[in-house]
TrEMBL record:
InterPro entries referenced in this protein's UniProt entry, alphabetically: Put_SAM_MeTrfase (IPR004159), SAM-dependent_MTases_sf (IPR029063)
Family indicated by similarity: Belongs to the methyltransferase superfamily.
Organism: Salix viminalis
Protein name in the entry: Methyltransferase
GO molecular function term, any single one: methyltransferase activity
Biological process terms in GO annotation: methylation
GO CC annotation: endoplasmic reticulum membrane; endosome; trans-Golgi network
Keyword Mitochondrion: no
EC number: 2.1.1.-
Length: 714
């Protein structure tokens, strides 16, 4: 299965000429198609090979000329009622906690070494559920923040596993209809608040220099939950494992969290994202695998001068070795291994006090490059993109920091302290690393989103109601303007930067003191070997049929073009649409609009939509700006909307802004998904093509399991 790489920013230098040619070809193709599709004459066009028809304009007859007041967008004729029918029954109640890309049964097909089977493994197209995931019977709207930090409804997450397994560690308790979170943890028996106070005695958590943090193997995310009161925003992650619900508990508490694991692929964040990383008895083998590959990955995502905090084994093993049921020799060896890897990364051990040890990453790599004569490994990476982190394999090399002028300088520039950091010009913009975005663009974008959010609140009174929503998702976050405009509300926003986006802006979002993740809502699943025979077999498998011999020949020619393109450096790592556009010019029979439609259908049939690494009912509110335009002809609109439905809570809300034609299609689908929705004008008035869909998911749940109500459609 081939996954599209997020290397959408640049081609290699040796392919610049091919890139320029390709761009010219694409622009020519677009002009040709636009001219053809905008032609609205009544002349019949013969598309057979022998056609030599010449079209001439008839002279204007002023006596009969009529003014045309018709609409000129492409939604000219509504589809027939049959074509507009959509049917999404409720899924079987057994899917109430379905996580498509972390499915326990599917994961068993994959390698168990290094827990690779617990990574993302998404279903193929034919495995995707075409139904709406139900909430469990008795589901209730979660408590408002900050009450939700300590309490959740048991009916919403009906699991008692952790209450038994972690009974003595105060993770979670069941009290009547409620789950109670005392704030305890394996290494903080006095509670997370007291534990954070202990850390605060060792490093400064109050001056705004630490804003973003990541908690590896987070449990129920009490560390992240109690850091919020200190204006520190934490991304907590843990795998979907035998505990089943630890990340789900975190989300139900109103704490940012994702399903994730350190195994073989990079964490889905750009380089230099976090001010602080934390592991409290997370049981990750930090010193193992290729000279400490997991610590190398933490180094990649830590900012210059960032901190790594470790508590639990092997820290303070001299005191705890008996309680940990391990030998002193084993724990001492593990401690030595971690110390060695940290030194090889040029980290400085700041302090170890009782059960807490803290290391600091250097602010630049001037000394580190010099000491490679002492530490032979890891070597500095030469060619990798440090921000590429979607299905990207972990490296065994050290990610170099940006060059500095002096030994006392901070690589990449000094970040402002929070809250000034939110509106300060990010160094990725001021330094020119984000091509096409200037400081003025950034300021204007912030102003624009404040205006848009104010408009949203005027239309959606629930968004304006303090405390109504807590967990928010922005599915196409751009520069993070939507989240920034809500910073004074008691909410947090997970900012998604799609891999298909024109610019990789996630680094800017983190530099603003916000959080987010990469996500590709679409993946191309043609084989990595783009040979003609394999592609033709794919065509047959996907049942792409044509009735004309010349079109069948064109499909074969297209396969040959893909093969040639692959040999030229395209192929599996670049966009299928690019190959398609090139084909329309350089391959035989390239001028058939019928073929264009056929190959577009092929693109959709060979693609699939991918789910987020999160549980159902994660978010109270979902925002999608131009998302469906971005994935047009790439991913089935129904699948994206079903995924939005899966991760949205009952009575949660959605705002989708996009071209009017696209929104009309979206509206037709959500109308049968038990959503209430309406399309409103753009904030600048009715003459804008972009419109806004406001929708709310209705309350419904799985039937009472104690009553015989028949089987729910699967």
């Amino acid at each position: 299965m081939a996954i599209l790489s997020p290397s959408f920013l640049t081609f290699k230098a040796k392919k610049l000429n091919l890139y320029k040619i390709t761009i010219t070809v694409i622009l020519s193709t677009i002009s040709y198609l636009a001219g053809f599709q905008n032609f609205r004459g009544s002349i019949s066009i013969d598309t057979t090979p022998s056609s030599n028809t010449v079209f001439r304009c008839a002279p204007a007859d002023h006596k009969t000329t009529k003014l045309d007041f018709g609409a000129h967008h492409f939604a000219l004729i509504p589809p027939s009622p049959v074509a507009r029918e959509h049917h999404f029954p409720p899924c079987d109640p057994k899917y109430s906690e379905y996580t498509p890309c972390e499915d326990a049964k599917r994961s068993l097909r994959f390698d168990r070494r290094r827990l690779i089977y617990r990574e993302r493994h998404c279903p193929e197209s034919h495995e995707i559920l075409k139904c709406c995931v139900p909430a469990p019977h008795g589901y209730k709207v979660p408590f408002k923040w900050p009450e939700s930090r300590e309490s959740a409804w048991y009916a919403n997450v009906p699991h008692k596993d952790l209450t038994v397994e972690k009974k003595n560690q105060n993770w979670v308790r069941v009290q009547g209809e409620r789950l109670r979170f005392p704030g305890g943890g394996t290494m903080f028996p006095r509670g997370a608040d007291a534990y954070i106070d202990d850390i605060g005695k060792l490093i400064n958590l109050k001056d705004g220099s630490i804003r973003t943090a990541i908690d590896t193997g987070c449990g129920v995310a009490s560390w992240g939950a109690y850091l919020l009161s200190r204006n520190i925003l934490t991304v907590s992650f843990a795998p979907r494992d035998t505990h089943v619900s630890q990340v789900q508990f975190a989300l139900e508490r109103g704490v940012p969290a994702l399903i994730g694991i350190l195994a073989s692929i990079r964490l889905p964040y750009p380089s230099r994202s976090f001010d602080m990383a934390h592991c409290s008895r997370c049981l990750i083998p930090w010193g193992q695998y290729a000279d400490g590959q997991y610590l190398i990955e933490i180094d990649r995502i830590l900012r210059p001068g960032g901190y790594w905090i470790l508590s639990g084994p092997p820290v303070n093993w001299e005191t705890h070795w008996r309680g940990w049921n391990r030998t002193r020799e084993d724990l001492q060896a593990e401690q030595s291994q971690i110390e060695r890897v940290a030194k090889s990364l040029c980290w400085r051990k700041l302090v170890q006090r009782k059960d807490i040890a803290i290391w600091q990453k250097p602010t630049n790599h001037v000394h580190c490059k010099a000491n490679r004569r002492v530490f032979k490994r890891p070597l500095f990476c030469n060619s990798q993109n440090p921000d590429m982190a979607w299905y990207t394999k972990m490296e065994t090399c050290l990610t170099p920091l940006p060059e500095v002028a002096g030994i006392g300088d901070i690589a990449g520039g000094q970040l402002a302290k929070w809250p000034e950091r939110l509106e300060a010009i990010p160094s990725r913009i001021s330094g020119g690393s984000l091509e096409g975005v200037t400081a003025n663009n950034f300021v204007e974008n912030s102003r624009l989103w404040k205006k848009r959010v104010a408009y949203y609140k005027n239309v959606d009174f629930q968004l304006a109601k303090t405390g109504r929503y807590r967990n928010l998702l922005d599915m196409n976050a751009h520069l993070g303007g939507f989240a920034a405009a809500l910073v004074d509300d008691p909410v947090w926003v997970m900012n998604v930067v799609p891999v298909q986006a024109k610019m990789n802006t996630l680094g800017v979002i983190f530099q603003r003191g916000l959080i987010g993740t990469y996500q590709n809502w679409y993946a191309f699943q043609s084989p990595s070997n783009l040979g003609t025979d394999i592609l033709i077999r794919d065509l047959e498998k996907q049942q792409v049929k044509t009735t004309q011999t010349r079109h069948r020949f064109s499909v074969a020619a297209f396969a040959d073009c893909m093969k040639l393109a692959g040999q030229s450096g395209f192929g599996k790592t670049y966009d299928f649409d690019l190959l398609l556009s090139v084909h329309l010019i350089i391959c035989p029979d390239a001028h058939s609009i019928m073929l264009r439609l056929l190959l577009t259908a092929l693109l959709i049939s060979l693609s699939r939509c991918e789910a987020m690494s999160t549980y159902p009912r994660t978010y109270d509110f979902v925002h999608a700006d131009s998302l469906f335009s971005l994935y047009k002809n790439r991913c089935d609109m129904e699948d994206i909307l079903l995924e939005m439905d899966r991760i949205l809570r009952p009575e949660g809300s959605v705002i989708i802004r996009d071209d009017v034609d696209i929104l009309l299609n979206v509206k037709a689908i959500v109308d049968v998904m038990q959503w209430d929705g309406r399309i409103a004008d753009h904030e600048d008035g009715p003459h804008e093509r972009e419109k806004i869909l406001f929708a709310t998911k209705k309350y419904w749940t799985a039937p009472n399991p104690d009553q015989d109500q028949g089987r729910v459609a699967d």
